[in-house]
Each structure stands twice: as structure tokens, then as C-alpha cells.
Amino acid sequence: xxxxxxxxxxxxxxxxxxxxxxxxxxxxxxxxxxxxxxxxxxxxxxxxxxxxxxxxxxxxxxxxxxxxxxxxxxxxxxxxxxxxxxxxxxxxxxxxxxxxxxxxxxxxxxxxxxxxxxxxxxxxxxxxxxxxxxxxxxxxxxxxxxxxxxxxxxxxxxxxxxxxxxxxxxxxxxxxxxxxxxxxxxxxxxxxxxxxxxxxxxxxxxxxxxxxxxxxxxxxxxxxxxxxxxxxxxxxxxxxxxxxxxxxxxxxxxxxxxxxxxxxxxxxxxxxxxxxxxxxxxxxxxxxxxxxxxxxxxxxxxxxxxxxxxxxxx
Length: 314
Known about the structure:
Its cofactor is Zn(2+). It holds the Pfam family AstE_AspA_cat. The chain is of the alpha/beta class. 32% of the residues lie in helices and 18% in strands. It contains eight helices and ten strands. Helix 2 (36-47) runs parallel beside helix 3 (99-116) and helix 7 runs antiparallel to helix 8 (291-311). It is globular, with a radius of gyration of 19 Å.
């Protein structure tokens, strides 16, 4: 379990929101730890003979950061797309540091997507935030959280590009599942950075040990969420509520499930009119889970979500 930092965040003045200088200092501290091209694009290329692959945008962050690149944003569709079929949207890597969201989405496509192709149109965006994937970060280079930026005139290019991709099928979607992780670094780095950026005090919290889901409080689907929880439990453990009956500060409404107003908060899972929506949250730092289990948990969640949505189509 992560412990909150004892010292103030090293950038900015406590109580004062960041300006351009603080954002530039933050960006100067970011390091590219891994390769989007080698670890993600190469996998997508191997899938190209079996699926339709498209570039739906390009992030020119080499104009901001000298050692950054130009990042193609890639989507995968099943072959023989048919307009009469419902659309299933799978997104991963909205927060690039949440590794199993990216590789779980790719693993789902490789292992399971073809068996659903005759019943749904699959649209998979496995790595929405490639710069953040490389830098193992929550934000983009402008210190913006893409997963709070899914709204009109979004300041996050990652979010705006995905919304453009999804716009033609927004009202035809049956399901959208957005793959995330909750990590120890949420408490040790990203929440303190958020508080510092916004000039607010940092309030320490806790990191749940296990998998959980975020339902849409404006259109909850409890039976759907529990079907996903039951499938994932065969792969990894489910996060318990804390002593306050909460997970990350939100009331647990059912085992392993909390709720957010997805669209109101600008969250990725709120970008369609799908009757079935959920955000997965895997805990990769658990002593009880491996990276392989985390990827498998994401895959299990996607399959269970599709199976339930098809059996209970609205």
C-alpha cells in the first residue's frame, strides 16, 4: 500500500496554481522510459493481417519536447464491418502509465475479437495517450489529464482525436468499456502533482488492493457491472471497501463497484450513448497479482461485458 509523500510537491508554491513556468519545469522532469513504437505499434502491425487498422490522428509533441516524437493514434476494427450490427468500443491507455489497459486491449483483440465479429462491430483504441505511455505518466505534455477532458473543444489532443473517431458511431454503441489501473503512484506522485498544479492542499488517501469498476451514476447498470466482477474474480481478486465503505473516496454501491457521473466529469467512458458503460480499475502493485494476471483481468472484463451486453441488448 502506497504512503503519501511527507514533503510538498517539488514544483510550484503551495496554494498557488501552476503557471507556464511550473508546467515547463514539470515537463523538463519527464523521462521516456519505454517505446510506444516497439511495445504497442509493433503489436498492432502484427494484427494488421487479421483486422482493419487505421490512424485516426497524430500527436506532434516533438514541437513541444525535443526528445519526443510524432505519435500516430491507432484504432483496430474487425473485418466485414456491417452497419446493421451494434458497436462495441474498447479503449485503453487513456492514462498512458496504466499498462494493462493498453496490453489488455491488444491481448483481447489477438485472442478473442474474431469470435465476436459476426455479432458486433468492434472498435478498439488500445493506447489513447502514447506520450504518457512512454513517460509512464497520467497527464499529457501540457500537464492535462486526458481522462477529465472528454468534452467539446477539449484542451487534450488525445481526447479530441478519440471523440472525432467515435462520433460516427456514438449513438449506435451498445457497449463502451474503458480499461484503467489504480496504482501506488496515484498516491505517491499523481495526486500530489494534481494538488500542486491546481494550488490545492493534498489530502492523503488509500489505494485499494484489487480490481473494481466505475459505473455511470446517471445511468447505472448494476447487473451488468456484477457480471463483469464475477468474470474477473476468476482471474484476480476484487477490491474490498475500506473502513468507510468506500473505494478511493466513493461509496461502494455493490461489491467491487463505485459510481461517477461519467459525462459530467469528462471521462472517457461517457463519450457514447451506449446503455452499457464501465471503467475497469486493476491494481498492478498488489502482492497478489502479476502483470500477466492484470492483462488477463482486463481481457476477462471485456469478454464478460460483451457477452452480457449481447445477451441483454437494449
